[in-house]
Amino acid sequence: MKSLIIGGSGFVGGYLAEHLRSLGHRVIITQMPGAETGICKDSDTARSDIYNLDILEKDAVWHLLNETEPDAVFHLAAQSSVAVSWENPQLTMDVNIKGSTNVLEALRRLEKKPVILLVGSGEEYGKVSQEEVPVKETKAALPGNIYAATKACQNRIGSIYAQAYGLKVIMVRAFNQIGPKQHPIYVAADFCRQAAQIEAGIREAVIKTGNLEVKRDFTDVRDTVRAYALLAEKGQAGETYNVGSGNAVSIREILQLVLDHTHVDIQTEIDKKKLRPSDTPVMQADISKLQTLTGWKPQITLEQTIQDMLAEWRVRVGA
Description:
The chain has ten helices and 13 strands. The chain has helices at about 10-20, 60-70, 80-85, 90-110, 145-165, 185-200, 220-235, 250-260, 290-295, 300-319, and strands spanning about 1-5, 25-30, 50, 70-75, 115-120, 170-175, 175-180, 205-210, 215, 220, 240-245, 250, 265-270. Helix 4 packs parallel to helix 5 (about 145-165), helix 6 (about 185-200) packs parallel to helix 8 and helix 6 (about 185-200) crosses helix 10 (about 300-319). About 40% of the residues lie in helices and about 15% in strands.
């Protein structure tokens, strides 16, 4: 089995590569030219074939897919930060819509058609009423930010390609993924980084926060990639599957877990720069469709994830 991970040098891609190799796959990874490979510096991941690829270069996408002839494609390349999407909407639209379409067009032209997993986001659903929580895949997408709008568009385009061209396109709406080695632009990693710096005595004993009252569905990335592999194997073409823990916790609870596992007294303070123009109050996935199809369920507790993230940030700060 040969698997291609587009955008595989980043946070999720590194864990997915490791998991796929554990299943016996030959793994091929693409990264942006000049990008740091992150987790791919580890010796196991370094055994993957790594190619430079900008998904906005349509011909380059086609040539790579034609050359490598994968059995499965995991499309992870994206501008995936909601905050950055507000700051740079054009980049977000280019990468998440044009880039994904370039990949689908290349697949359409291939003689050997692989399965492709298009990774989207729970943010696509937008605001949900109390009666709609946990949110099912049947709920209409009503995105409330630029990032979510681009991912909703990607989802719809994937569905069209599945119906019009008979491609095995499987769409995922992934909810918040966290774990060791995540970039601190994301909230849990940011809290863990600040806590590790405070423990090391290189910053004042105050963690800066954004909105603590919103609730999100957090899943350890090591559980998430297991779901991706199962969906590539068992998912139905043209269908969308939620991937999450099935539980929603507030950002305040995440912060408290971090504080509970630090070694010093820490205060908290709202930083207006971390507040978003618009925030969905609650996002929680209904994962029954995924579980019925694959039997998947999360195995790593949120508390264990936070402990692992803190441990990894202590090493980073110490270095």
